[in-house]
Write a structure and sequence with these properties.
The protein is of the alpha/beta class and 252 residues long. It contains 9 helices and 7 strands. Strand 3 and strand 4 form a beta hairpin.
């Protein structure tokens, strides 16, 4: 996968490519990231890329021409069809379905806005999709781009050591939140709730699987009722959820 990032602050990305799965995917040549600074595509000596908004009002936006030149330059390095994404609070919120669609593209360009945004003509003529990471405003598109890259990388085949590392994550598990996890030691002294659930050390894989599904259903019901309402439960899931719910209400 080749991702080209158009940003006024490409150095912001230096740290995320040094560590973790992003660094691992680059070393494995599963991911390549290029950077294009609109300031390098201006023709004025001060490298100015912003201007006041037509019609008045406060603030400035990024001018069209430097962005368009950067887009063309980025596309020159891409052999296949290119997906151009603008990171914007007006875009569709990122979710698992969105990520799965994006993974089908070998080449993507991420445009990171600044100030009050970018010239609308860039969006109308070049952008294929606007994507948001939430209903709030950030200083620019760089942080959303980092989030999107991280989510994509986790789902590139060959990046994670095992496929189950990805498929048992929250949201990947049929739209449910993930189940709770524990590791050694079995008991943590001086903590009130210090025991690992016995089923997890029982060696009974069927019971472990059922327990994890029950916890996922219950955690989704408690923490994300909006997601739970959308979930159509199977007969088994209904049974496990009722067990969780009854136990929870009894101990509340």
């Amino acid at each position: 996968m080749l991702i080209s990032i158009i940003s006024l602050f490409p150095n912001m990305f230096k740290e995320i490519i040094k560590y973790g799965l992003i660094n691992k995917s680059i070393k494995k040549k599963l991911l390549n990231i290029n950077f294009f600074n609109p300031r390098d595509f201006t023709k004025n000596k001060h490298k100015k890329v912003d201007s006041l908004i037509y019609g008045g009002g406060g603030g400035v936006i990024l001018k069209a021409k430097p962005l368009i030149r950067a887009i063309y330059q980025a596309k020159l390095q891409m052999k296949h069809h290119v997906k151009i994404i603008f990171l914007s609070p007006q875009g569709k919120q990122i979710n698992l379905s969105c990520i799965r669609k994006l993974l089908s593209y070998k080449n993507m360009i991420f445009i990171c806005g600044r100030y009050k945004g970018i010239d609308e003509r860039v969006i109308n003529n070049f952008v294929d999709e606007e994507i948001s990471i939430g209903d709030y405003i950030l200083s620019g598109g760089e942080l959303p781009a980092m989030v999107l890259i991280d989510v994509l990388v986790r789902n590139i085949p060959g990046v994670l050591n095992t496929i189950s590392s990805c498929t048992t994550d929250s949201f990947f598990n049929n739209g449910l939140l993930g189940f709770p996890n524990y590791t050694r030691p079995k008991i943590l002294k001086h903590l009130k709730k210090n025991n690992v659930p016995p089923v997890l050390v029982s060696g009974n894989h069927k019971k472990i699987k059922d327990w994890r599904l029950k916890q996922s259903l219950g955690f989704t019901w408690l923490k994300r009722p909006d997601l739970f309402k959308k979930k159509i439960l199977t007969k088994k899931e209904k049974f496990l959820f009722e067990k969780f719910k009854n136990s929870y209400l009894k101990n509340k």
